[in-house]
């Protein structure tokens, strides 16, 4: 899926430079949404778009039946919760790709490099997911840092052909600095909370 997005996106950028600006606006919008949603009560699993999509077109059984995606009953085909799980995972990957692929195109438009970066990212994605899951509870400002980075990369894409274009070395410095500040501020806040608790 990511390969298809890259193979379609690279020629589009080469042919229609305006696509980069669309990517930039999309990253800024994603960053703003991420910043605004932090601290809000998260939507329950059953209310997610993937679950509602499956339930709209199929009858879903409330019970698992091993690893089966479908079974039959007296009425006809019945989807099992395992199908819903698979759909949620697939749609989550699409959402990751929609953020990560435009962000990589901000650094390079070489399809091979974009694909290689995605392959290496996916190799460590499962372990990184659990690392970030643990870090989000410990580092209070990591969410805001990631939102800022998405907005910054979006702005970099919008300025790509202007006199104010941001060099890759500068953007790397901004990203590393924002990560350091976000983690440092989170550690400081955690220590302050521990002092208050003790």
UniProtKB/TrEMBL annotation:
Query: Which keywords label this protein?
Result: Membrane, Transmembrane, Transmembrane helix
Q: Does the keyword Nucleus apply?
A: no
Where, per UniProt, does this protein localize?
Membrane
The UniProt entry lists membrane topology as: Multi-pass membrane protein
Superkingdom field: Bacteria
* Cross-referenced Pfam families: TerC (PF03741)
GO CC, any one term: membrane
Q: Which residues cross the membrane?
A: 12-32, 82-106, 112-132, 139-159, 165-188
Please give the InterPro entries that the UniProt record associates with this protein: Integral_membrane_TerC
Q: Which family does it belong to?
A: Belongs to the TerC family.
Task: Output this protein's name.
Answer: Integral membrane protein TerC family
List the taxonomic lineage: Bacteria, Pseudomonadati, Pseudomonadota, Gammaproteobacteria, Alteromonadales
């Amino acid at each position: 899926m990511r390969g298809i997005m890259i193979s379609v996106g690279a020629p589009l950028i080469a042919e229609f430079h305006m696509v980069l600006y669309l990517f930039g606006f999309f990253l800024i919008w994603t960053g703003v949404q991420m910043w605004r949603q932090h601290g809000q009560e998260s939507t329950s699993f059953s209310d997610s778009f993937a679950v509602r999509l499956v339930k709209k077109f199929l009858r879903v059984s409330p019970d698992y039946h091993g690893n089966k995606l479908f079974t039959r009953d007296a009425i006809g085909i019945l989807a099992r919760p395992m199908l819903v799980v698979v759909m949620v995972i697939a749609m989550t990957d699409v959402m990751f790709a929609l953020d990560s692929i435009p962000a990589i195109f901000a650094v390079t438009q070489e399809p091979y490099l974009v694909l290689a970066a995605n392959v290496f990212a996916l190799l460590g994605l499962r372990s990184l997911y659990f690392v970030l899951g643990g870090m989000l509870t410990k580092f209070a400002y990591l969410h805001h840092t990631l939102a800022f980075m998405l907005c910054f990369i979006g702005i970099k894409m919008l300025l790509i052909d202007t006199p104010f274009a941001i060099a890759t070395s500068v953007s790397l410095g901004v990203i590393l600095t924002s990560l350091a500040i976000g983690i440092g501020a989170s550690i400081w806040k955690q220590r302050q909370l521990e002092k208050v608790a003790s």
